[in-house]
Amino acid sequence: MGYPNGLVSQGKQPLFSFGVITDVQYADIPDGRSFLGVPRYYRNSIRVLQKAVQNWNNHQNLIFSINLGDIVDGYCPKDQSLDAVKKVVKEFDNFNGPVYHMIGNHCLYNLPRSKLLPLLSFPNVDCAYFDFSPIPEYRFVVLDGYDISAIGWPQDHPHTIEALNFLNEKNPNSDKNSPNGLMDLERRFLKFNGGVGKEQLKWLDKTLQDATNSNQKVIVCCHVPLDPGATSKEALLWNCDEVMDVIHRYDCVKVCLGGHDHKGGHSVDSCGVHHRVLEAALECPPGTDAFGYIDVYEDRLSLIGTDRMASCEMVFNR
Ligand SMILES: Nc1ccn([C@@H]2O[C@H](COP(=O)(O)OP(=O)(O)OC[C@H](O)CO)[C@@H](O)[C@H]2O)c(=O)n1
Which is the closest atom of ligand 1 to the Cα of 74? Predict the structure, then answer.
């Protein structure tokens, strides 16, 4: 059987399947461009989401969907932020199943965490990282890539202060979103990125130990990518090295999914873990789409992408 975007089914039934989309970055404003000049279609992006939900529902066998973050764009007029987030959430709610969201920098430009987490139905409204297990053999670990961040926390919050100190130490530019002069992987030390804090790292370690004890395979999800092979250096998590050190201690993690770097990417790291950064809905010119679903097997994930989201076979290496 043939799929869109070139995959060929291997005949076996998946254990389960789920929908994916990222970087909708909706705003009711005219089309624009990224800082680097890439076109952005702020109004069309909600149409891409509507098409995704329709497609997921038509599939009939997707047991949940994942939104990898950045639901509303930073250029959304601030007096419209709440309505814009509610409007996008309403579209996700048309999906016939649970939707797991994560927060991105653009979400945090619009609303503080205290407002976002309840609106996005996080399992615990005080914490943006969590895990869930759709079937006993698999566990999903959702990381908060803006745990240590200069955006989203109150100005006097310890995590804001830690982030500002970190940026001042690592990035000498007065514009902390500018990578000018930063070399190679240091180009990730930008204000629109963030890091995973110590408590969350401990939680990640404990959760992966628990998954190992339960003989579960793990998919890690984070808005901010974790491997330089799958993303521009400017879009990497500040402490991707620390997070990957924890992940590599365990054999259970098979795939990491990300958003944030709109062009998308795929790599296999030195320990055989797949990293798939998904293509953004925001950059779809009208008439095009970027969403997909993932078939989960015992030995691989198969991403079936639509249009600008490339299909991808991720066979487990360990
Ligand atoms: N002062 C700046 C600001 C940004 N850049 C570079 O521009 C790229 C991304 O900026 P932008 O499009 O505004 O960021 P988004 O959060 O909307 O999107 C995230 C990107 O997709 C992550 O790649 C980036 O390359 C910056 O370094 C800059 O040079 N100077």
Answer: 17
- CA separation for the pair 95, 90 (Å, rounded): 9
Q: pLDDT, tens digit, for every residue of 90-136?
A: 999 999 999 999 999 999 999 999 999 999 999 999 999 999 999 99
**Ligand 1 atom with the shortest distance to the CA of 178:** 30
Please list, in sequence order, all residues whose beta carbon lies within 8 angstroms of the beta carbon of residue 144, skipping any fewer than 6 positions away. 102, 103, 127, 128, 129, 196, 200, 222
CB distance 262 to ligand 1 below 6 Å: yes
Radius of gyration for the chain, computed over Cα atoms and rounded to the nearest angstrom: 18
* Cβ 259 under 6 angstroms from ligand 1: no
CA of 36 to the centre of ligand 1 (A): 7
231 lines ligand 1 (CB under 6 A): no
* 304 alpha carbon, distance to own chain's centre: 17
ipTM, 2 decimals? Answer: 0.91
pTM over 0.90: yes
